[in-house]
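Recap for those who missed Tuesday's class. We walked through two folding examples back to back. For each one, the amino acid string is listed first and its predicted structure tokens come directly after. Nothing is annotated here on purpose, so try labeling regions yourself before you check the end of the notes.
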Amino acid sequence: MKETLRIAQEVGAGLDYAHRNRFVHRDVKPENVLFADGHALLADFGVAQVYSVSGTEGITEAGIAIGTPEYMSPEQASGEPHLSNASDIYSLACVVYEMLAGTPPVRGSGSRATIAKQVTDVPRPLRALRPDAPAHVERTLARALAKDPGERFPTVAEFVAALQREQPSAGAIGSVIGRSIAVLPFVNASPDRENEYLSDGITDELINALAKVEGLRVASRRVGARGYAAPGRRAAPHHRAAQLDRGRPAPLVRAL
């Protein structure tokens, strides 16, 4: 964890310098992070773009967005010609997420599918894949991976600083993290099985939104669903260990 955050800090420093000089990298990815004397360096500014440039430099002549699908921001994947530093912040967050979770936050069956998912799919909360990750790191990545550029950190320096923020001492954790919650999968209460995808999508959206709430611990879908105990029944052992304060399933009926 410490090594990952150190790399993020060093790469972020280089990216912040570029942003302060009005350049957007547009291709932040693991392959462009090089190491020299134990320090991480951001390389390959070959597709970098100046903030004030005009035209359609954000897309190729074939209409394909410039960049690497797994690390593209939603606006970059959409082929928007004018990108801000928020796009690079999203890409750096993808790299950090992958270093911690072992997989990019968004990935499809191929390049085009991945590009489409960057625009529509909300990444799973980090701790659903890396349970030992600090809560503040999960919240920081969730904000940096927001679909709306305006909801991300204003600068890469603020993003990196939020990642580096120290956790409270063991004695203070109880007063800081006082509540926990599990978002259980919505139950498709309609006869139409095609609505199942809505149940999964709404569940993921709620988990991602609640993960951004300060002082609230959100259990992964797996822990919540398997650990839920109906009224009058005893919770499963791993549910009790998770110390969940709230958990309730909800029916889903699609309005016509």
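Example two. Treat it independently of the first, because the proteins are unrelated.
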Amino acid sequence: MKKMMNLSNNQTSNKINALKCNKGLFLSFQEKVERNQQKKELKDKMDQLKDEFNTKLTNEKKRLKQKQKQQELNTFKSSTYQIIKDTKKIKQWNRKARQSLAKLPSELYEKLIKKEYGY
């Protein structure tokens, strides 16, 4: 029995020593330089792809903002509204009426004034 235990202990110690001594592949200087160059090329390619993705993303965000702004402008154009010239009475309105009050974008307001009054 002792011989079997010794054998198993010996085998495990051999495995442990093998793991400690294993240092991987020994590469020549030229191979190390080539690997480093490949890593650098790969990193450059990844950076380029990230930049392309970021530019696409920013362009998409700009497009969506522009689209949303145009939709808001179109809703103002299509809605019915009254131009309030005397704003002193607004304070006397009830709360819900004041909340429903909205300002027109300046571009649209200028177009309306030109149409109505011919400025």
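Answers for example two:
DSSP finds four helices and no strands in the chain.
The CA atoms of residues 30 and 114 lie 77 Å apart.
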